[in-house]
Each structure stands twice: as C-alpha cells, then as structure tokens.
Specification:
This protein is an all-alpha fold. Helix content is 80%, strand content 0%. It has 3 helices and no strands. It has helices at 3-30, 37-60, 64-85. The longest helix has 28 residues, at 3-30. The N and C termini lie far apart (50 Å).
Length: 93
Amino acid sequence: MNPIWALGVFVLGMTLGVVYFGGLWLTVRRLPSMQIPALWFLASLLFRLGVVLTSFFAVLQGGWELLAICVFGFLVVRFVLVGCLGNSHEFAN
C-alpha cells in the first residue's frame, strides 16, 4: 500500500468525521428554534449518513485496509470533538 494513499484516506476519514459529527452538533444546536425539529433531525441524519456511507463504500473498493484507515481518521475526529465540545454546558440554560 502506498503511504501517500494511506495518508490521503486518513485525511478523508477525518474530513468525513468533521462533516458527520460537526453536522450533528449544528443540528442539535438548531433544534430548539425549529418548527418541526423531528423532520430537521431526520433530514440531517439521512444526509450525513448518505455522505459517510457512500464515501466508506468508495474507499472499500481499494481494500479493507484503506477502509480501516479511513474509519480510524473518522473516529479520531469523533474523540477530538467530544473532548472539545462534550463538556459544554450551554444547553443547560
């Protein structure tokens, strides 16, 4: 496996993590101001899942090793965002 490809797939996984978990964070922040919050949440979920699963499937065409690297990048972003935003108490008000 080419190390340049591995790095690119890792960065792709991180980008997908930002799209998925950043989109989730934005969705949850906006829910109180929405007229139909369930519809907003469902639309956001379907969009985020569609982007991430389609990208994972495309990466899988290169082999399971590349998919594992991509998922690792995705999870790195999850742990970083939870560490940075997870202790936020701005929703308590």
